[in-house]
Amino acid sequence: MEWIRCLWMVLLFCVTNVLSQGRCPEKCVCIRGSTVRCMFLQLDRVPQGIPSTTTVLDLRFNRIRNIPRGTFRNLGRISTLLLNNNQIEGLENGAFEGLTELRYLYLYKNQIKSIESQAFSNLENLQQIRLDSNLLQCDCDMKWLSTYLKTNTGKIHATAVCDSPAALHGRHVAQLSDADFNCDTPHFTMEPQDVIITMGNTAYFSCRAEGNENYKISWLHNDAEVDFRDNRVSVLTDGTLMIHNTVDSDKGTYQCVVRTPNQEIRTNKVQLTYSRATPSMVTTPSDTSGQVGQSVRLSCQATGIPTPVISWKFNSITIIPSRKYAVDTVGNLDIADLQKADEGVYTCQASNEEGFAVADARITVQGEAPVLAQPPSDQSLNEGDTVRFTCDISGNPRPSITWYKDNELLSSNRRIQIVNEGRQLRVVLLQSSDRGTYKCQGENSAGSVEGSARLAVTQTAVPTNNREHDTEGRPGEDIVLLCSEDGDPLEATRWIRNGASIFPGPKYAVQGNRLTIRQATDSDFGRYECFPENTLGFARNVVNLGIRAREIPTSFSGHSFVNPAIQQATNQVDSAINQTIKNLFSKNRTHSVQDLITIFRYPSADALQLARAEEIFEQTLEIIRRHVNDGHKYNLTSKASSYKEILSPGHLELIANMSGCFANPRIIRCSEMCYHKRFRSMDGLCNNLHHPTWGASVIALQRMLPPIYENGFNTPVGWDPSRVYNGYHLPSPRLVSSFLMSTDHVTMDEHSTHMLMQWGQFLDHDMSLTPQSVSNARFSDGRYCNETCENQYPCFPITVPRSDARIQHATCLGFSRSSAICNSGSTSVFYKTFAPRQQINAITAFIDASAVYGSSDFEAQRLREFSNGRGLLREGVLSKHNKRLLPFDTGNFLHHFDCQIEPSKRHVPCFRAGDNRVNEHLALTAMHTLWVRHHNYIATELHEVNPHWDGNILYHETRKILGAMMQHISYKFWLPQIIGESGMNKLGSYKGYDPSVDPSISNEFATAAFRFGHSLVQPIMFRLNESFAPIPEGNLPLHKAFFSPYKILEEGGIDPLLRGLFGVAAKKRMPEEVMNKELTEKLFSLANAVGQDLASLNIQRGRDHGLPFYNDYREICGLTRVASFDELATEMPQRSVRDKLQALYGHPDNIDLFVGGMAETPVDDGKVGRTFLCIIADQFKRSRNGDRFWYENPGVFESNQLAEIRQVTLAQVICESSDAIHRVQRDVFVKADRDEDYLNCSHIPKLNVKVWSDCCTNCEKSGNFQSLTNHFRREQSSQFSHREDREHNTILQPQSPTDNSQIRTLNDQMSAMDTKFSGMQNEISGLTKTVVTLKRKLRKINKLMRKSSQKGCYDNTGQKRKHADQWKVNDCKTCTCKGDQVECTRETCPVLQCANPRRRVQGQCCPVC
């Protein structure tokens, strides 16, 4: 074949007679100026320089891939175009533009798959076109070609053959019917609806379409294309139009348009309008009287949209403002220099375009001097109390009452409240500065009068942490221990030793802050704890009672500094703690939202003591290191071995003991097996009977890898800014966030809803909480962590780069380290006793609904409702749908806190729940509300099927069910979407409880991997009505949803938030779109001068916790350790991501775990990459297998109960416990693509509580773990008893196998005892039944007595009325007696259209024209 090709080329040259007189493209052959041949030239594009006189253009046998628009624009004479045998993949619109004379077009033997609909437009002379031997994809987009060829049959000879789909392979395009193209015309599945909002809020128009044909959604505003150059306007990926910060020009009509290559369809027009309302009176004028010459004010305020205009009339004559009459900006009327002629009726009228409202008041001109009827009286109270002074002054006109303190005028504010028209003065949260003389003065035009009283305030203070060290005594002496408290006034001092409280008696005497030990023995020496407390708080102080001084070698250079260093460290840490507590919990200062953020993460009382001891221990070592370094000029580099070099092991032990790190271990009692076999403890203890603390609250986080600290002990990576890692300085977390992790663009997830994110956060708050430092100020000088940019304990600020686009006036972001727990006693490289710094998990590690119930008995008691014995949780006020909200946190120190982020909004307390973070943002609050309601719903159902159960058994059984529901929802529906099929395979199926598995939370999981959920957060908090359109108040930018509980109270309850979670897609998890800027640039921006950056906080927290680098975790997760950034291509295929990582970190070994994990591309069907998948799967596997109360563990539930739990869905919970949601998809984590996917709640399976029916034989004792028979359990071998039970049961065990007579005697005695107790139980059972019967009869008698004594009611004159009697109180008010209740109605008057309505007609309520 090669020789034929050569012959063909030779012939071409031979027949060439005349070359074109114009230019000829390079290597091409031009014949007689009209034919250009460019064959076999390996061209990848159409060559330039083709003569305009060309009529035949031959471009065969090249490598041309595409033909851009306008390629042939100046070649209008071409009649034949040969493009066959190339590699053309598609033809775009305008590819043959300008070829008006083209007749023959050859495109066969290419790779053409698609042709745009305008590719052959304006080819009016076309006679033949060949498209055979291509890869034509005959889908909906190719339908136009079939129509084109059919329309031009007879004019154009065409060959075009389909290659795909398989059903159409080999068929001619012109012979296909419309149905063959499988072209569903796009249709709307959701159309926009009218939106009515307040101007300035965000408007959303939803529009969704379906169809096989490719389409694009666009929008029209007032029949013109929406201008997307306005950055306030954007279209989400699902077609939703979003308009931020609406202005007047945004109102009008909007229309959604779907365009395809073949057609255009439009929705109906909808309107964006701003709320309008007729005027309504906010404040109405009231009848008043005044003295001649006096000035009076008539108040009148109205609301409406547009803002109404206020006007006044006097006796139906319009008042014109003048020197006598003045109307202020609100609408109040001031009348100066009253005269008798001013007496009459004054009418306030508020009007706008929508209507008007009127209100009348009468002024009477008269006079009577003030008289002091009740003067204020002297009072003496404590700080924090509320004082009330009453001052009743009569007179005509009513005297105005003003209050003075020490002759200074008082006015109302947050603490000082002047109420009841001045007759009462209230001062709340008394301070010592409030003491003094208070005077009330009443004055009218006829004179004035005054009275005064003295207020004495007793000063109080929070007890502080002080300790007496090494108090010594001799055996046989009486020894006095002092607690050294300084709170004022003190209410109590408790003493504890070895975990047990000390009570006054023959051995001990407790008086004030003194504990006297009488005739001390050797066993009395050791460690004592005392707890002074008053109404403001408590402290924990320690007294160490020793017999003799400890002898410690003095050959180490640090020994001379030990005692002073311990004292200095203790003083510094205690001072910082006390200052922080005083700042956060003082009732005498106004608190900010930043205070709330700190409070909600502040260590609990138990965690505080452990964290305090660790800080004293670490600070002591640091002080000694500095002393030695300064005094001996040692070059002590930041290595842990420096402490070993300067301190002996004995002194290290002494420091640990004095700091509290060797305090008495946690008292663990698992002996009450009747309880522990059936229910979890609140704090997670005794879940594992062999290792009772595994998974419990207030224990150290576990680790998958040993921590890395710069000094090997406690200083985090980055503590020394000059230190380099692998030749590079570590980047600032703020730089990593802004350069790599922050994004403006948000891609919507195609599959998952925003509920996926919210459940993840709710679940996280059920499993881990790492408290922040015991102090938010430096131990050294008390400066706050957001005031200084130095790394000094406990402050670890985040450096802000100079190039930062947002933060220009700050060089760092404040950051305080997490609290740490005293070392666990494990061995480290440098100390034979102490381990590196370990952080605390303050809550239980189990999925046990601790976010609902709390993680301690104390928290649980605060949340329970004990008033009815039904096992319920406390609830708060009613919502607009008559469902209860969460209770307000009015106990302890939070009752006076204003729990909202916008200072302009009204005071709203914080909500209380099992987790302190409940108030952080609205969606989280909604989830807490949902589950508290669901507890009460299930507890009520259980009470109906088991009326014999007491409140405790109802509470614990419901808690057990709720925990199981959360476990099932998490593992069945939520987790598969997070870790995908590969992750679920790694998790494996459940094989039963394994007591050798520790379920405690790993540091890597809590601090890095489980924070992946931040990448799913939408920048908008959607709030949707029943039609899944925005509520009138609009959706919220995320930063306005933080700390705003008033929005639940005032803006629709929890339903709009829940619909916004399961009705809107989550943000798609993408490595190039990690976290939206609402989290990285505006977090808590309304509460801080500088908005926080969540990505920066996550990175810095990982360094604070000593997490090793990303590359280290790749190894333990089965991935290869990389030596270059290009080797990350498998997990991070985006070149831009790898380039940014290299620019930031310089070396792969320096990448932070959180950053590396978030940069990985998610696995198929998952939301995390392979490294985070490894960490998350490990934790969830341990959380399941190491939980004795896992819901699938045999024996935890009966088989029929387990079957019910396995059909539980979050949709079911929403249906039962939301405000009024009636439609929801079956799986709320999966998007509903069509409206039909939202099912009526009647189609969602419900939990059948009847399978928990308890057919008991001794119902009187059901639920009582301390019943009589419990104390005498027979046939329990001590071999299988718990330790505490064994101690009790030893009296029942034979002491010697040969002493059979004793055994027989003991058995006889026990048999007799059993017989007696059996008879006692029968007697008690009979008495109990008798009492129950008598109580029932007594209730019936009381009910009949109340009915007989309370029938009838009394009217306003005191006359008794019968049932159904009616009477008129006045012309407008009618009352009716119903049983023993009075119900009244008031006639509502219509708005009159006449100019001068007649005020009143005798016997009628309403005015007439």
UniProtKB/TrEMBL annotation:
<feature type="domain" description="Ig-like">
    <location>
        <begin position="463"/>
        <end position="530"/>
    </location>
</feature>
<dbReference type="InterPro" id="IPR034824">
    <property type="entry name" value="Peroxidasin_peroxidase"/>
</dbReference>
<dbReference type="InterPro" id="IPR010255">
    <property type="entry name" value="Haem_peroxidase_sf"/>
</dbReference>
<keyword id="KW-0408">Iron</keyword>
<dbReference type="InterPro" id="IPR003599">
    <property type="entry name" value="Ig_sub"/>
</dbReference>
<dbReference type="Pfam" id="PF03098">
    <property type="entry name" value="An_peroxidase"/>
</dbReference>
<feature type="domain" description="VWFC">
    <location>
        <begin position="1351"/>
        <end position="1409"/>
    </location>
</feature>
<dbReference type="InterPro" id="IPR036179">
    <property type="entry name" value="Ig-like_dom_sf"/>
</dbReference>
<keyword id="KW-0560">Oxidoreductase</keyword>
<keyword id="KW-0106">Calcium</keyword>
<dbReference type="InterPro" id="IPR013098">
    <property type="entry name" value="Ig_I-set"/>
</dbReference>
<feature type="domain" description="Ig-like">
    <location>
        <begin position="279"/>
        <end position="364"/>
    </location>
</feature>
<keyword id="KW-0963">Cytoplasm</keyword>
<feature type="compositionally biased region" description="Polar residues">
    <location>
        <begin position="1290"/>
        <end position="1302"/>
    </location>
</feature>
<dbReference type="InterPro" id="IPR019791">
    <property type="entry name" value="Haem_peroxidase_animal"/>
</dbReference>
<keyword id="KW-0479">Metal-binding</keyword>
<feature type="compositionally biased region" description="Basic and acidic residues">
    <location>
        <begin position="1277"/>
        <end position="1289"/>
    </location>
</feature>
<keyword id="KW-0325">Glycoprotein</keyword>
<dbReference type="InterPro" id="IPR007110">
    <property type="entry name" value="Ig-like_dom"/>
</dbReference>
<keyword id="KW-0964">Secreted</keyword>
<keyword id="KW-1015">Disulfide bond</keyword>
<dbReference type="Pfam" id="PF13927">
    <property type="entry name" value="Ig_3"/>
</dbReference>
<dbReference type="InterPro" id="IPR003591">
    <property type="entry name" value="Leu-rich_rpt_typical-subtyp"/>
</dbReference>
<feature type="domain" description="Ig-like">
    <location>
        <begin position="370"/>
        <end position="456"/>
    </location>
</feature>
<feature type="region of interest" description="Disordered">
    <location>
        <begin position="1277"/>
        <end position="1302"/>
    </location>
</feature>
<dbReference type="InterPro" id="IPR000483">
    <property type="entry name" value="Cys-rich_flank_reg_C"/>
</dbReference>
<keyword id="KW-0393">Immunoglobulin domain</keyword>
<dbReference type="Pfam" id="PF00093">
    <property type="entry name" value="VWC"/>
</dbReference>
<feature type="signal peptide">
    <location>
        <begin position="1"/>
        <end position="20"/>
    </location>
</feature>
<keyword id="KW-0732">Signal</keyword>
<dbReference type="GO" id="GO:0020037">
    <property type="term" value="F:heme binding"/>
</dbReference>
<dbReference type="InterPro" id="IPR037120">
    <property type="entry name" value="Haem_peroxidase_sf_animal"/>
</dbReference>
<feature type="domain" description="Ig-like">
    <location>
        <begin position="186"/>
        <end position="273"/>
    </location>
</feature>
<dbReference type="GO" id="GO:0006979">
    <property type="term" value="P:response to oxidative stress"/>
</dbReference>
<comment type="similarity">
    <text>Belongs to the peroxidase family. XPO subfamily.</text>
</comment>
<keyword id="KW-0433">Leucine-rich repeat</keyword>
<dbReference type="GO" id="GO:0004601">
    <property type="term" value="F:peroxidase activity"/>
</dbReference>
<dbReference type="Pfam" id="PF13855">
    <property type="entry name" value="LRR_8"/>
</dbReference>
<dbReference type="Pfam" id="PF07679">
    <property type="entry name" value="I-set"/>
</dbReference>
<dbReference type="InterPro" id="IPR003598">
    <property type="entry name" value="Ig_sub2"/>
</dbReference>
<keyword id="KW-0349">Heme</keyword>
<dbReference type="InterPro" id="IPR032675">
    <property type="entry name" value="LRR_dom_sf"/>
</dbReference>
